[in-house]
Amino acid sequence: MPIFVVSADAYPIGRRIAEKTAAALGYRYIDREILEGIAAKHDIPEERLNRLLDAATPPAQIFKKNWRRQLALIQEATLDKLLADHVVCHGLAAHLYVLGVSHAIRVRIISTTDKAAGASQTDAKQLEQLCRQWSLTAFDMDQTDPAQYDTVIRLAETDETEAVRTLVAMSADSRFRANTFSVNCLKDLELSSRVRSQLLKDYTNIKVEAHKGTIIVRTRVSRRNRNKVIEDIKIKAGNIEGVSFVEVHAASGLLARL
Amino acid sequence: MTDDSGHTMNKAPDRPRESMCVYAPMDAAERKSATAGRHTGIQQRACFPVRLRLILAFAAIFVYCAGVTLWTIYVLPAVHHKIRFLELADAYRHETAQMRRFEKNYFLYGTHLRDALLHTQKARSILSDNEADILKVMSRGRLTAMQKSLASYAAGLQKLAGGHSPEVRAEVQHRLRKYGHRLTADADAFSIQERRALDRTFSLLRTGPLILLAVLMIILFAAAWHINRKIVTALGRLTDFTERIAAGDYTRITFKKTRRDEFTQLATAMNQMIDEIEKRQEILVQSHKIRAIGNLVAGVAHELNNPLNNILLTAVSLQENYADLPPAEALEMLADIVGETERSREIVRNLLDFARQREREIKRLDLGEMLGRAIRLVSSQARMSKIRIETCIPDNLPPVHSDRQLLIQLFVNLLLNAVDALSQNAHGRIAVTVDAPTQAEYVAVSITDNGPGIPRRLQDRIFDPFFTTKPEGRGTGLGLSVSRNIIEQLGGFMRVESEVGKGATFTVYLPVTRVPH
Amino acid sequence: MNQKLKIMVVDDEAIVGKRLKPSLESSGYTVETFGDGRSAIARLSKERFDIVITDVRMDDVDGMQILEYVRANIPQTKVIIITGYASVDLARRALDKGAFDFIAKPFKPGDLRTVIEKAARAPSA
Ligand SMILES: Nc1ncnc2c1ncn2[C@@H]1O[C@H](COP(=O)(O)OP(=O)(O)OP(=O)(O)O)[C@@H](O)[C@H]1O
Ligand SMILES: [Mg+2]
């Protein structure tokens, strides 16, 4: 059965709908509660993780030292939870890293409208701009782009119960059934995030791709350290559970792209 | 093949190259050497700029006008003097006439001589008071002669007025007559002569300006003709040339002029501009190729999965049943693994060959082979969309001259467009046909699809850079513009025929290389 | 298992059939292999199979058409799709048409066996 990856422009509203959907379907609900566990395990203030996920925090506050690794840890923990079927996930930016998984239903909930009470239109625009900026910087994706989602629910057109009903109905759609291919994709994502957060302890610029147990690591190094870094990454990644083969692509030079 | 509904995208093949006398187009082969030698060669020629020509022409006109003005300045005071002199001459004649009249009266009627003396005095004072004016027209000798005879006359009169002996009287009378007569004759002759001279000057002043105008007109015509020849025609050629560039013909300007001027400088600058355009276009071609490769890689990555799957299944079977497999069967499995590995390498190699960046190298190519490679490259893409590619490529195609990768890129672009057009089509078909009439100068390669086609009104625009109907991120709109650019580099042209709902045919005409015997 | 499961393997890659047949037979299934969709459908119309394993991209009749045929005519038969052209889109299309599972190539025979066992246990739709 499917998993839901819910993203909303307003956290409390997204949370309400996601939680109700989970309850209606009897799915497990995961949200920022899991941050506590991560914070305890890696000795990071939970407050810091919360702020990291909040688009409304000023960028200077978010992109401080270690933000990549902290995000990667959230990513790792979330993907681990998603491996179990029957999950509704919200508030953990999962829509930015659960990609290419056919049984993950990607949902965007848009609550700010032109005539939204309280917030003026410019505020809404500004918030959207912040959201876009945040997702582009953190994950190189535009989370406000509706093409990214399987369904976009505008609360200006429906109410919350109706939204929940829509999502519940979608869960029965056979298109979103988990299958060997999609489960493998999710496992690959989980493994790669695990490897990445591990490597981010020592390196800042790391991209990881996984295909079954084969890992491809991309990084940027100075020419001088190249061989040493590659060796080091191979050993570190090779020791991680589930990894059977490591390939490292190390780019050198100012203009090299990952 | 090329019916009237076909839209001509480039100049027709039979359009003769305009022959140019100042700037002539070169063949592609000549171009390189000319590009290299051009900047040095032209700078060594003598410099005769248009500016200098213009300065010379205007200077000539100015000198001429100044000459005419000076002449008038010179002539007018002379006229003035003559008129003044004529006035004096008239006054003088009048006085002498009066003086003679009183003299006659004296002899005939015995009247007094006072009046005669008075007029003589007046005549003398005319001559002496206006000596300066008179001398401007008359020589001093003559003036003195006149003054002398006037003085003698006056002396005679004085004498008469003194003594009155009859013989003296007769003798004086005789002398007075003689001088008097000479005086009036002189005065008459002189004023008549001067009047004639003045008339001549006046008539010259009347006709002179007409002649001057005529001469000025001739000078102006000459200058205009020269300017027209040098500037307007040169500008016209440069206009032709820019139109040619706009049409995609990047033949450089060559110089047939023997001297340098502003136009050769402009032409040099334009040639540099073309160099720059070509460099940019090369970058465009390259970057679009990288995009095309990106598309092809997706197909190839999927296509690789089949041989990889075969290898994996076989290897695992071998591994699992290693102990109980008969050697013959194990060998067969190993042979399968080898074969599938080679197949994988082949799939990748074709793409790598296309992707590798090489120096451009124009050489004789087998068109059929190039088409085959292009089709091979897009085949996995086509297979993904369940598109059949049919080919009708005769053997013994005439050879074409081109750069290998450019030619392949051209066909890949057109094939990928067809694949894109057919992505929603359940029975997509692409036909690649080559038509090479034995005597024709062009070989025609048609790529036909049975997709949605292109509406007439868009048929011009699809070749424009950045024109695309595909969603953002899917198409750059550079494919056809780059393709047309490639074709023009190869000296060919492209046409599109399409009917909405039935499909589209892109036909590429490439010049055939003829080997001279 | 009181009765041997009958499995059909359809793939235009001959090696797939060649390797899967002995591998699956050794697990106690009856296996028939076909290299094209047309003969596979002809066979399906005569014989009942429990599971059909088919490639998607084949010339002429492709895996999707086999899937449609099976769903329309023998709904109790389960269809497992194997393809080298796996994508989110294709997977969702196949599942929408009623495929039991969707497997991306390359896979190991063991992976397939797991899926077959799952299919055997699952109640027929
Ligand atoms: N075979 C065809 N059938 C229908 N339309 C076509 C065909 N070939 C080209 N076109 C139209 O011409 C447009 C321009 O094509 P062009 O190759 O220049 O750019 P593109 O294909 O959109 O982008 P790119 O080549 O970078 O992917 C296309 O967007 C499409 O609308
Ligand atoms: Mg194109």
Description:
The complex is a heterotrimer of chains A (258), B (517) and C (125). Chain A is α/β, with parallel strands linked by helices. Chain A has two domains: 3-176, Rossmann fold; 202-251, Alpha-Beta Plaits, CATH 3.30.70. Chain A has helices spanning 11-25, 34-42, 46-52, 59-62, 67-82, 121-139, 160-171, 180-199, 226-238; strands spanning 3-8, 28-30, 87-90, 104-110, 151-154, 206-211, 214-220, 245-251. In chain A, strand 7 (214-220), helix 9 (226-238) and strand 8 (245-251) form a beta-alpha-beta unit. Chain A is globular, with a radius of gyration of 19 Å. The relative contact order of chain A is 0.14. The model of chain A has no long low-confidence stretch (mean pLDDT 88). Chain B has two domains: 17-26 and 273-511, Heat Shock Protein 90; 50-224, Four Helix Bundle (Hemerythrin (Met), subunit A), CATH 1.20.120. Chain B has a six-stranded mixed sheet with strand order 1-7-8-6-5-3, with helices on one face. Chain B has a two-stranded antiparallel ribbon with strand order 2-4. The relative contact order of chain B is 0.09. The model of chain B is unreliable at 1-39 (pLDDT under 50). In chain C, helix 2 (37-44) runs parallel beside helix 3. Chain C is of the alpha/beta class. Chain C is globular and about 35 Å long. Chains in contact: A-C, B-C. Residues 291, 417-418, 420-421, 449, 451-454, 462, 467-470, 475-481, 504 of chain B line the site of adenosine-5'-triphosphate (ATP). The site of adenosine-5'-triphosphate has 23 residues of chain B, from helix 10 and helix 11.
List the helices and strands and how they pair.
The complex is a heterotrimer of chains A (258), B (517) and C (125).
Chain A: E1 3-8, H1 11-25, E2 28-30, H2 34-42, H3 46-52, H4 59-62, H5 67-82, E3 87-90, E4 104-110, H6 121-139, E5 151-154, H7 160-171, H8 180-199, E6 206-211, E7 214-220, H9 226-238, E8 245-251
Parallel strand pairs in A: 1-3, 1-4, 2-3, 4-5, 7-8
Antiparallel strand pairs in A: 6-7
Helix pairs in contact in A: 1-7, 5-8
Chain B: E1 7-8, H1 28-43, H2 50-109, H3 114-129, H4 131-137, H5 140-162, H6 166-246, H7 262-320, H8 327-355, E2 362-365, H9 367-384, E3 388-392, E4 400-403, H10 404-421, E5 429-435, E6 442-449, H11 479-489, E7 493-499, E8 503-511
Parallel strand pairs in B: 3-5
Antiparallel strand pairs in B: 1-7, 2-4, 5-6, 6-8, 7-8
Helix pairs in contact in B: 2-3, 2-4, 2-6, 3-5, 5-6, 7-8, 7-9, 7-11, 9-10, 10-11
Chain C: E1 6-10, H1 14-25, E2 30-34, H2 37-44, E3 51-55, H3 63-73, E4 78-83, H4 88-96, E5 101-104, H5 109-121
Parallel strand pairs in C: 1-2, 1-3, 3-4, 4-5
Bound molecules: adenosine-5'-triphosphate and magnesium ion.
